[in-house]
Every structure is written in structure tokens, then in C-alpha cells.
Design brief:
Largest sheet: 3 strands, antiparallel
CATH architecture: Orthogonal Bundle
Number of helices: 7
Helix content: 55-70%
Radius of gyration: 21 Å
CATH superfamily: Winged helix-like DNA-binding domain superfamily/Winged helix DNA-binding domain
Mean pLDDT: 89
Shape: elongated
Structural class: mainly alpha
Number of strands: 3
Number of domains: 1
Strand content: 5-15%
CATH topology: Arc Repressor Mutant, subunit A
CATH class: Mainly Alpha
Length: 128
Amino acid sequence: MPAGTRKQHRQEEAVELCGFLHVHEDLVQKVRKSMPPEEDLSALAEFFKVFSDSTRIRILTVLLCAETCVCDIAQLLGMAQPAISHQLRILKQMNLVRARREGRTVFYSLADDHIKSILSQGMEHVRE
């Protein structure tokens, strides 16, 4: 069996279903009371969608290191400035980055420490 197929097979084996249907109503009620509203869950899903694009992750990683302008980000990532600007617009709309103008140059930075924490924890997770 090829390595990829073995890995997929192991993952499929790891998922177990209940042998019979028995709902634990007390647990269901407890969890239901602590679940956030659907609107919050949808907003959270949209928030995490922003992290699903590798270009945006690369931009956020640059900004994790330093406040940077579009020209420098484009140079670091080997991409065109319009492509970087497009992604920065998305990141700004989701409140992940902020902009600061200095003369004719706009500098971008991470919006707050939460974003640093999310990136750091995500990187720690994938490196485990």
C-alpha cells in the first residue's frame, strides 16, 4: 500500500462512531447554553478564511517582523505591488493590519497583539 494511502487509511480508522444512538441530553443542554450565537460563529469562520491564503500569510509574517510599505513587501515576496495591495486591502478590511501614512509612503503593521499570537500559535502547531 503506498504511503499516502496508508496515511489516509489510518486517518479514516481514527474516526469512530457511536455503536448506538444515545443522546446525552444534560451534556447537549450544557454545551448549547455555552455556544456563541450563530452570527459570531459565522464571523469567526470569515476571520479564519483570511488565513487560508498563503500570500496573506506571507504578508502577515513580514509584518510580524516589521512595519513595512507595499514596495518592501513586494520585494520580499517577489510579487507585484498591485497584488500585494489587493491582499493588504483584504487584511485591512478584516482588521488584521493597519496603515500609517508618512508623506507619500504608507506603512503597514499588524493591527494588534492578537494577530501576533494567532500567527505564533499557528506556526507552533504546524511545527509540532
